[in-house]
Amino acid sequence: FMKVGPRNAMVIAVCSLALVADRERDEIRAAFGSAAPGVPLVRASLAEADSFPEQVAAAASPIDDVRGTAAYRRHALRVLTQRALERCLA
Q1: Which segments in the chain show pLDDT lower than 70?
Q2: Which of 9, 25, 28, 86 is most buried, by the most CB atoms less than 10 A from its CB?
């Protein structure tokens, strides 16, 4: 789990991401918050890991608000997804 926000404790995140890389199922799954209505789930095979950050960002439908712009949220999701993949697949 990773998030972008002004602090790490008790603050509404600009966006957040939970990612699972399941080698047995050859699958990557990610869910994110504060960048779409509800909590979307994005799935792909491990072979698609290179394009997965873009797939996650494309699944978002963020809005502009006082915490961040839609463009910033979409960018942050790409970065969070890439970082989470690097940690999970290391």
Answers
A1: 8-10
A2: 28
